[in-house]
Write the structure tokens for this entry.
Amino acid sequence: MKVGVLSGGQLGQMLALAGHPIGIDVSCYDTEPDVSASHGGFVVTGKWTDTGKVREWARGCDVITYEWENVPVELVADLATFKPVRPDPKALAAAQDRWHEKKLLSELEISLAPYRLCRTPDELNQAITEIGPNVIVKTRIGGYDGKGQVVIKDGEGIDNAVAMLNENGLIVEQLLPFDFEASIIAARSTSGGVVVYPTTLNVHRDGILRASIANTGLSRHQADEASRYIRAILERLNYVGVIALELFSVGGRLLANEIAPRVHNSGHWTIEGSETSQFENHLRAICGLPLGSTAALRPAAMINIIGSSPNVMGILSIDGASLHTYQKTPRPGRKLGHVTVTAPSDKMLAERIEAVQRCLSE
């Protein structure tokens, strides 16, 4: 079985690594030659607009998937005319456009922060009047890891938001005083079977995910609600593969933030911490294979390596710490790798997380 992955970043790299033990070869198509997946798998390089080249690459694959939600949806839809594409292009289209994404979540009766679509400065000011004074303004299409976002507090920052206006408009959301951020990841097979991973407590700074701690944060009721949310999304989209839903906990209420139609950063702990990693289960799902257990083997967490190369000797000297590098050139704000941490107890996990964080701050 050969899986084609559109885009070849670190998620493509980890999909390739997960495929080898179960007999699945992964080939990535990316616009750049020196991407993470090029160091552990086969990468074909070309433009997204070179339809002939993309089609030729796709014909050599049994099934097509994607590891980045900004792949042109028109290209993905074209490939779906002659090859199985999983998840379906409509899932990609929904996640690419925040307006369509929020309408989908609203239709499924999934709780959201108050929001508005704004196309003009006047509409922007009206939205702030109605749901403000503290809001976050996001581009409707594109943007990730804090990019394409502006926070407005008590009127400060409006000029920056106005500068982002374009023909697509902007999404204005109430800036929530949330207790914590969380996410839930699930996989759905070609036969409709669903498996759900334990929820994670997520720590962000400057719009970038810094750490995820598995099976903590949410109450039992909230975890059940998160599972209901993600199952509803999977069913509505007739989704096949792994999906993630980012969440806010606000005074006990659970509100959805965004969908990621792919394997997700907050699920990297599953590589060492779960019976079946999110990467293996994504490949199993899209290839029509039985899904694996999502049970956590032990307390686990993931810590991102941001901006500068890690102290490899220090990290590898910590019991339960596993280093994963993405072969990227360091620069501020860039995800260069992650460390998965496991431990026999929650107390020991916290101690090991602290030790890893000390290494990363050196």
